[in-house]
Amino acid sequence: MKWPSLSFWFSATVAVAQAASNNGELYVFEKDASIPSRQHHTISHDAARLILASRLGVDRYHDAGVVEDETLFAINDLGGSKKLFEDGQSTSRVTVLLSTSDREHFKDGDRSYTYKSEVQSLPSFDESEELFKAFAKQKQPAKEVRGSEQYPDMGVIHDDGTSIVHIISKSGNPDAMISWWRYKGYDVVLLISPSQTSSTSKYGHYTIPSSSHAKRQMREEPLEEDPVETESPNETITPYKSNDTSPVRGILPFCYSTKEKCESTTRNCTGHGSCTVAYTQKDNAGDAEGVPCYSCSCTPSVRQNNDGTKKTTVWSGPACQKKDVVAPFWLIAGLTVLMVFLVSWGVGTIWSMGEEELPSVIGSGVSGVPRKG
């Protein structure tokens, strides 16, 4: 009886060790030295993907899916802060690095990071390498993914002066690369992947823009000769379509600086509303009019059934993409509470009637005749 028990514990120990070996690490080095170092809880590999995409400003290409509260907190905390009227591009200089766990990343115990988090069930290094190549493609769709001309031997696959995508080569020194980009004034985000390729995890859904489509648009732009006719092509180059029913991906902002950005990002509020001025924020320049904040104003959809009745659907969300179920929820909750109250009241009434004593008339009628002496 002892050997099966020992075999069970040995298998469990091996399984736990293998699961721990598939975990990765995510480090963030902010150039602002005043931010204290702290450690996050364990995050999923999709949360790490969304954090890197948010840092690079390409989160519009990544599907967040169902996001838990803890994951959303980690994305908001580690994904970099954005200003209110930001057009989606990262304003700070950032470098994302990919390395493996079998290398020395911090010499002499120097871990002057701002944030640290363990990434659970991180996919293999090959999968992470494909993800980083997708980042480079999403930053510049019209260009092929290739090494940087300025840093040809460092493993840099994208460099636009603001965002760096860097896959550290086998001969590279991760500790030197981290120090180099921090010296250049970049925020550094380091993803350490497990060295072994036994992990079967996969990253979530993301899209890669077509380079041929972007190149075709660049060639067609000089054909517009007459500036008067620039208003008519706007109907064909708008990024949204009325029949586009695909879900809006990414975490959408609430405010947009122009109406065109609001319509293009939200796909004209997914056909369930329109972009209007929510409020006007005063800027520091002393402008009397201020900066407008455009957001989606949702309109209920009314559908007429075959029997002549009408059904109204209320929409909500930053792009009017979600059905508002507040009214049905309170209706069902109210009816449920009412039914529980009526049943409880009926049972209580019947119980109280059973507890009452019988009247004296009924009691004398059922009593026996007294016997005579």
Automatic annotation (TrEMBL):
It comes from the Eukaryota. The chain crosses the membrane at residues 329-351. Residues 201-212, 233-242 have a biased composition (Polar residues). Residues 201-242 are annotated as: Disordered. Pfam families: DUF6859 (PF21656), Vps3844_C (PF12955). Coiled coil: none annotated. GO terms for cellular component: endoplasmic reticulum. Residues 255-363 form the Vacuolar sorting protein Vps3844 C-terminal domain. Keywords: Membrane, Signal, Transmembrane, Transmembrane helix. Residues 1-19 form the signal peptide. Residues 42-138 form the Vacuolar sorting protein Vps3844 N-terminal domain. This is Uncharacterized protein. It comes from Elsinoe australis. The lineage of its organism: Eukaryota, Fungi, Dikarya, Ascomycota, Pezizomycotina.
